[in-house]
Amino acid sequence: MRRKLPQIIVAAVGLIMFLVYFSGHPTAQRVNQTILVDYWQIIFAFTLIVGVIGFARSNLQQIQRGDGRFFRIVSLVGLVSMPILALIGGINAGSPFVWMFDHVQAPMQATVFALLAFFVASAALRGFRARSVPAAILLLAATITLLARSDVGGATIAWLPETAEWIRAHPSMAARRAILIGIGLGSLTTSLRILIGIERTWLGSER
Amino acid sequence: MNSALSRRLAFAGLFIAVTVAMLIPSEGDVRVAPETRQLYEWIDSIPPGSQVIVSFDHEASALPEIRPLALALLRHCFERDLVPIGVSLLAEGTGIGFALMDQTADEYDKTYGEDYAFLGFKPQFIAAILSMGESIPATYPEDYLGTPIDSLPAMVGVTTYDDVVGVLSIADGSMTTHWVEYGEARFGVPIAGAVTAAMITSYDPYLASGQMVALMGGLRGAAEYEQLIGIGGGGSRGLLAQSVSHLYVLAMIIIGNLLWWRARRRKGKESV
Amino acid sequence: MIDWGTIIAGLLTLAIFTFLYGDNPIYRFAESLLIGVSIGYFLVITWQNTIVSLLIKPLVSDGRIGLIIPLGLGLLMLSRFSSRLSFLSRLPIAVLIGSGAGVAIPAMLDARTLRQIDATIAPLWTDGGLAIGTIVVVLGVLTTLAYFYFSRAQTGSLGRISQIGIYFLMVFFGTTFGYTVMSRMSTFIGRMEFLLVDFLRLTQ
Fold first, then answer.
1. pLDDT tens per residue, range A161-190
2. 3-state SS string for B49-75
């Protein structure tokens, strides 16, 4: 029953959602809305909270063990400070909560991503080699794209932007479209396998 | 050259190239890509007073690229007297979206609740998109600030996607895909995207098939859009540095390949 | 007046940039703080915009008793912290997986597959003559799909066709690489703009 009941729920909810997708009937809309808002979103919010509790628990355990104690404490202080600030000043513009987001979280997060610019430059120097025909094609497409989107002081090669746009809209788009079709068919079959109970990995261990 | 040294040299070169380019004042027009013009014309064709959903589907990590894009688009929306309704499919997009709408609304003397609204974040993007298609007030009984949305004049008459002209998704990942696959496919709501450059090619098939009405992206896209609306911003300011950084990466690729060819030839001669 | 916000943001930005020299305690401090604050932010927004707005207020103020069921299912998620009771969390997960799979079937079939196939089927010959662009798209889609066809060995004619598919894929990867470079550089430029203009005030 520990595995059967969840499988029955998956099949039942999946079938309902599949059927109401095609219906505009008010009852179908109500059912759809109930499952989407009252069940899906609320349960999903709890899964996120479980993640947060898990993070705090694992950090506390590591603090007790003495692994990177200082940095774990910093993480936990950061975690606790946000709800406290929200409780004190709300989440409106100008509140301490928003101040922390604007001046602590957002700048650091953007900078972590900015680091990637350096690794891209380093990879360009040390990794991108025209070792084969496919690799040469990749490099050529990348070069045309980059040159077409660069103009220093208005200087650019006249035919380049249009060539780059043609490449993006035709051969590049065609490959992406084939990938999309492939992913679409793959997702479709995986969903069907889940609903009819062939795919059960989501249930976890046998216990 | 040893690998740690070559990596540090590549880092230092990029840092110097971009810093110098940013200290040089740059002006001048850029060539506007057809895709940017298409988005501009789509927004320009919307009748004043119409509600349009602006979805901030991004995180703070993409803020340097997203901010100029979002500001240019919001300025165009307010300039045209459209009524943007902000939502977010990612938690971090919430604070950013609210601040950007607040800032641009101030520039155009727009009043919160009357000329624009911000509904906030709902988790599980597919559920959020589908449930808004059934009922926006049921999905968002309150706005971001906790005000019941039926008390906001900006939300008058907005019940489902049928009551808005479309969705403008400002995204740094695959969230626009979900708007297309669930919003457009299920409810037929027109979807336009303003995305980070890294994601733009992923959406090309949707634009080509007509599942998206317009698509633009990147800092360069923001610069082009700023030129179309005639208001400079982060896109235009960073344009020279952007071009210099592209050329720098190309130079790295060329130098890397030349070094590799030379090493290969040397090895070939030694083996003969 | 001292703008503490900009000073703190600037110092934290520099702290993250120190990673370029190598992993170090300053970077690890900033990273730990970022992780904690991000999760805290996420918790507050989820609590405020979902748990309060969609659950607590309708349940308490509007008396929507039916919401006790999703509340109960949500609370069952907490059973994951007990090895003895963790099987109970399969019930709410089943609701999530079932709803996702149910709506994905029509969406994937329609938006990703049929609409894309439909857009590929276009006249190869128009009033203006041979539609080169359309021919390239049709060829690209078919050959790339052939490359992803793993039910038969990629030899003989299938191998040659899929080789062409590889070339199309390389064009896509090359174009995407070009745009990815743009994106990463934009992010770096954005941070440099903050450092040079707002933090150091070296330029306007």
1. 999 999 999 999 999 999 999 999 999 999
2. CCEEEEEEECCHHHHHHHHHHHHHHHH
For residues B139 and B224, state if they share a domain.
Answer: yes
DSSP-derived secondary structure letter, B142: B
Residue B195's H or E segment, with its range, is strand B191-195
**Helix or strand or coil: residue B168?**
strand
Select the residue from A181, A198, A200, A201 to test the C interface by mutation, using most C Cβ atoms within 10 A.
A181
> C12 and A104 in contact by Cβ < 8 A?
yes
**What residues of chain B lie within 8 A of the CB of C193, using their CB?**
22, 64, 234, 237-238
Domain containing B164: what range?
31-234
Interface residue B242 vs chain A (CB under 8 A): yes
E strand or H helix that includes residue B192: strand B191-195
d(CA A57, CA A51): 10
pLDDT band at A40 (very low <50, low <70, confident <90, very high): confident
Task: Give per-residue pLDDT as tens, B10-49.
Answer: 999 999 999 999 988 877 778 899 999 999 999 999 999 9
CA–CA gap between residue C19 and residue A201 (Å, rounded) = 38
CB of B10 within 8 Å of a chain C CB? The answer is no
Same domain, B129 and B158: yes
Phi, psi of B53 (to 5 degrees): -80, 125
Neighbours of chain A (3+ CB pairs under 8 A): B, C
Q: Which tens digit of pLDDT belongs to each residue from B184-202?
A: 999 999 999 999 999 999 9
- Give the residue extent of every domain in chain A: 129-198
Q: What is the CATH number of the domain that holds B226?
A: 3.40.50
- DSSP H helices, chain B, are 3-23, 34-44, 63-79, 91-107, 125-134, 136-139, 175-178, 185-187, 197-208, 218-229, 234-237, 239-271
Query: Which backbone phi and psi does B196 adopt, to 5 degrees?
Result: -70, 150
User: Structure pTM?
Assistant: 0.92
Decide: C70 and C99 in contact? Cβ < 8 Å. Answer: no
Within this chain, do residues B114 and B205 fall inside the same structural domain, yes or no?
Answer: yes
ipTM: 0.92
- Structural domains of chain B, count: 2
C10, C94, C171: residue with CB nearest A137: C171
